[in-house]
Amino acid sequence: MEWIWLLMAGVLEVTWAVAMKASNGFKVFIPSVITVLGYIFSAVFLAMALRKLPIGTAYAMWTGFGIVGTTVLGMMIFHEKITLPQVICIILIISGIVGLKLLEK
């Protein structure tokens, strides 16, 4: 169950980050509310996952989900550009997330 909590925390990490961009500096109400709620619930789900997962693994995966998810959604929703070196780094992050999961004790 802890992996489900961590996945939910990661999804909400991406949600609040994208909503924050859409909030235009907290000037747009609905995205601002989504940002605050997403941030709170992301932390809550991360805390629930940390009851059983090692903090180093869980935190690295949580931030990795956030980096990869916000990068992809930034490209799709906000038409942000990405360079080849950034793509390579994203692939390395994904490799690290997969490695952490495969090598868990």
What key phrases describe this protein's structure?
single chain, 105 residues, mainly alpha
Task: Tell me briefly what this model is.
This protein has 105 residues and is mainly α. It has helices spanning 2-22, 29-49, 55-78, 84-102. The protein has 4 helices and no strands.
Descriptive overview:
It is a single chain. By secondary structure, this protein is an all-alpha fold. The protein has helices at 2-22, 29-49, 55-78, 84-102. It is built from 4 helices and no strands.
Task: Give me the Rg, rounded.
Answer: 14 Å
- The helix count comes to 4
The residue-averaged pLDDT reads: 95
What best-fitting shape do the alpha-carbon axes yield?
A: flat
State the end-to-end CA separation.
15 Å
Order of helices and strands: HHHH
Overall helicity: over 70%
The biggest sheet, with number of strands, parallel, antiparallel or mixed sense and barrel status, is: none
In terms of DSSP E residues, the strand content is under 5%
The computed structural class is: mainly alpha
Unreliable stretches covering 5 or more consecutive residues: none
Number of strands: 0
